[in-house]
Amino acid sequence: MDKHSHFSAFLDGEIPERYSQKYQELWRNHPDFHGFKKMKEEVSIFLTSEPEPDFDRKRDQVFEKIQQQIKQRNIKIRSKTWISRPVKLAWAAAAVFFALIGGLFLGRTWVSMEVAQQKSEEVITFQLPEGFELSSAGNPEFIQLSSFRRRP
Amino acid sequence: MVFDKMKNLQNIFRRVFEENYTLLMKVVYRITGREDLAEEIVQETMIKFYERIEQLPHDETIRYWLLRVARNLALNYEKRRQRENAINRKLIQDENTFDSETADTKLIKKFEKSLVQKALMDLPFNLRVVLVLKEYFKFSYEEIGQALGITENNVKVRIHRARLALASRLKQGVLNG
Predict the structure, then answer these.
(1) b/e sequence A119-145, b meaning 16+ C-beta within 10 Å
(2) CA A151/CA B47 separation, integer angstroms
(3) Is this complex's ipTM strictly greater than 0.90?
(4) E-strand spans in chain A?
(5) What SS3 state is found at A149?
(6) Residue B7 contacts by C-beta under 8 Å, 6 or more apart in sequence?
(7) Which domains does chain B have, with CATH numbers?
(8) What is the distance between the alpha carbons of residues B114 and B123, in angstroms, rounded to a whole number?
(9) What is the distance between the alpha carbons of residues B142 and B149, in angstroms, rounded to a whole number?
(10) How far apart are the first and last CA of chain A?
C-alpha cells in the first residue's frame, strides 16, 4: 500500500532536491506514476469542490463566549514559574541531602584513618588458631581478624 | 504594574485568537464535520492557551501547539462518537428499534449532507487530519509533523494512505450510494 508513497511526496514537492534530481526521471517513467498523479489531482479537486461555511461571521461572537467561559469557570493564568519552582526546590533538597551524605562519608573516612594511623603504630603479636592461615595479600598492618580463614 | 501585565497578556490573547481563529475553525470543521462542534473545540483550545499564556511562545509557532490541542480535543469527540455509534448499532440489532439514534448522531447526519465531509468522515481519524492539513492549508510535511508530534516520514506515509483511501471510496461510488 505504501510502495509509492514517494510519488505523493515528490508531487507535494517534499523530496529534497538532491534526491528528486536523481530519481525524478525514474519516477516519471514508472508505469504507475501518471495514474497516481491523476488520482491525486482528482482527490484535490473533490476536496475543494464545495464551498465551506463563512466562519469569520462568528469570530467576535466566539471571542465573547471564550471571555464569558473564562469568567464563569474562574480560569486563572498559570504562573510562568509553576513548574520551575518545584523543580528548583527538588534540586535544592537533593543538593543538601548529597552534601550531608558526603560530609558524613568524609568525616567517617577521616576518623577511620586517624584510628588506623594510631593502630598502625601498635605492635600486636598473636597466635593463629590451629588449622588457620593468613589469607590477606594487603598491608599486614591493616589485617583484620576477619581475614583469617580455615586452612583447606 | 500587575494591571499592565494583565493588560499586555489580554492583548496577546486577543492577537493570538485573531491570527489563528479561522485556521482552527476550518481545520476542526473538516476533521469533525460539524460547525457547532468546531466552535466548541476552538473555544476550549483558546481557553487552554489562556491558562498557559505565560508559559507558551506568542509568535507564529503557537499555531502548532493550538492545532495539536484542537486535534486532541477532536479525537476525544471522535472516540465518544464511535462508542455511541457502536451502542446504537447494538441497540438496533438487539431490540430492532430503528428510532434509537441519539440527537448527536442525527446532527452529524444533518451536517454530512456535504459529500466532501461525508468522504472525509469515512477516513480513519489519523489519515483525515493529515489530509486536511495538506490539502486545505498546504502545510509542509515538516509543519504537519510539528503540529501532530509525528515524524515527517510518518506524515508522508499517512498522506499517501489517505489519498489512496479517499480515491478508492470515490471509485467505488460509496459516496453516491
Answers:
(1) eeeeeeeeeeeeeeeeeeeeeeeeeee
(2) 80
(3) no
(4) 132-134, 148-150
(5) strand
(6) none
(7) 2-82 (1.10.1740), 102-176 (1.10.10.10)
(8) 15
(9) 10
(10) 73
CA B6 to chain CA centroid, Å, is 31
Q: How many CB atoms lie within 10 A of CB B155?
A: 26
Are B157 and A5 a contacting pair, CB within 8 Å? yes
The pTM of the whole model exceeds 0.90: no
CA distance linking residue A23 with residue A12, whole number of Å: 15
Please enumerate residues of A whose Cβ is less than 8 A from a Cβ of B: 1-2, 4-9, 12, 14, 39-40, 42-44, 46-50, 52-53, 55-56, 58-59, 62-63, 65-66, 69-70, 73, 75-80, 82-83
**pLDDT category of residue B129 using cuts at 50, 70 and 90:** very high
- Rounded-to-integer distance, Cα A63 and Cα A81, Å: 28
At A109-137, the pLDDT tens digits run 666 666 666 655 566 666 777 776 665 55
